[in-house]
Design brief:
serine-type endopeptidase activity, single chain, mainly alpha, Rhomboid-like fold, elongated, membrane, Peptidase_S54_rhomboid_dom
């Protein structure tokens, strides 16, 4: 399958990202509407009960600012994932989300870690490194655009802001990089340039020596038997 066929547009490019964003907004609406607090369903490190946050935490947010900051990059990056990496998009989103949650559960501070920012960093990392590793000019361009739009996110994998789960960000970044290596040969890859062969190329052998083709007329002349002539001189009368 060539690159143009792999880049055919499908509805999933927008429907799945929209569904994801709608779900996290709907969960937040439920909290506001009924006065619920879902923070206890977040990742709580090194606690058996805290493992439920591996699946639940991406859908839980503390306030509208937190929710909005995750919604836009989540939609943009997941749309890029399902358009340029459709063959592995679902695996990256599901497996990557689970691994990101587990890493957060292992390395994070003892507190409830909530929000889809870990998934955002997962998508950011995968889209960024996949384009560079695959060396396809389209994907490299997407990587540069990703850096331009969200390059400042890299700083937040460090503990520079209080109350922010930098451990979740770091887990997503590492997971995305590992998945970009694992799936480097899947989907769109670097296109190998092949030179078109011309009649001039046929005049050289495999070692580059000049060897023009022998035409049929020349071959026929070589195959003709040698004709010998005998002259008999007539005696003069």
């Amino acid at each position: 399958m060539n690159t143009d066929e792999q880049l055919k547009f499908s509805r999933t490019v927008f429907t799945i990202p929209l569904l994801f964003v709608f779900t996290i907004w709907f969960v937040y609406w439920l909290e506001i509407k009924f006065g619920w607090n879902f923070n206890k369903f977040g990742v709580f490190p090194r606690s058996f009960s805290g493992l439920k946050g591996v699946l639940c935490s991406p859908f839980i947010h503390s306030d509208t600012n937190h929710l909005f900051n995750n919604s836009v990059p989540l939609f943009v990056l997941s749309a890029c994932l399902f358009y340029f990496y459709k063959e592995v998009a679902v695996k990256v989103l599901i497996y990557g989300g689970i691994v990101t949650g587990l890493l957060t559960w292992i390395i994070a501070r003892e507190s409830y870690h909530i929000g889809a920012s870990g998934v955002v960093y997962l998508l950011f990392s995968f889209v960024l490194f996949s384009g560079i590793i695959k060396k396809n000019y389209r994907l490299v361009a997407v990587s540069f655009i990703t850096i331009f739009l969200y390059g400042s996110m890299v700083w937040y994998v460090l503990p520079i802001k209080e109350g922010m789960s930098w451990e979740g960000h770091l887990s997503g970044l590492v997971t995305g990089f590992v998945l970009s290596l694992l799936y480097r040969k899947r989907g769109i890859v670097k296109e190998k340039f092949e030179f078109s062969k011309t009649e001039f190329d046929d005049m050289f052998d495999e070692d580059g020596n000049y060897a023009p083709p022998v035409f049929e007329e020349e071959m026929e002349l070589e195959e003709l038997e040698e004709i010998k002539y005998r002259y008999i001189y007539k005696e003069e009368e």
